[in-house]
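Fig. S4 source data, part A: sequence.
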Amino acid sequence: MKSFIVLLCAALTAPAAYSQAPARIVSLDLCTDWMLARYADRTQVAALSPMHRQYPVAWLDNSWPAHDATLERIVELRPDLVITGQYNALQLRSRLQTLGFRVEVLPLPTSLDTVTQYEERLLSLLGKPLSLASTPHAAMKAETGPKRLLLLGANGIGTGRGTFEDAILERAGWTNYLHDDGYLSLDLERIVTDPPDAILWAAPRSKALANRFAEHPVLRQAVPREHWLTTDYWRWQCPGPWTWELVGQLHRWLQ
């Protein structure tokens, strides 16, 4: 009964005007958590989603407020803006909209050309100047000719052409080792016969069955240890300003 009364009151009194910068923002997914932590004033954030504690990053500590992903808790927070990605919290955001809360859905970039637009969309919602958006890197070239890079994930899955990750490799000056599109199950024998110039191990560091392919001794012999590159795994999880940091890092490895 209490929950019903709380929700009914929220439906009658939810903010209707959006002329001012939001003062109480709630995020419903991991990518919008990170974007708010990067660009919003801390006082603007009423709560991040519980996802940011399940997938922690060093630069976002547990002192940030978080909700439990229930409708009742979010209503209690009285947000004047709820932000989420296009694929997450579909039922929850629909119910919040029904109650009259402002819900903004941020489609994730599908290409490097749309990363800046994604940032600018968030900045406009926060009432921030668009000039704060990161500056894209121009296409880079290898100084010694194209080198082939294999982006290797867990369970022996490689990232092929036509993907967001492929665009990062190409912008940084590498050539994707794989010629086919999408995410592919790798053939160990083929890699050993025709090894790439380098392997980027883009998976969580853990002793798990999912990592056995990467730990195979034959693969380690085919590609020398110094040609195994590593980056922060989280930078690949969500597009954002850190995408350009990846491009710069990958390009420096070509030098």
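Fig. S4 source data, part B ends here. Residues 43 and 249 are 32 Å apart (CA to CA).
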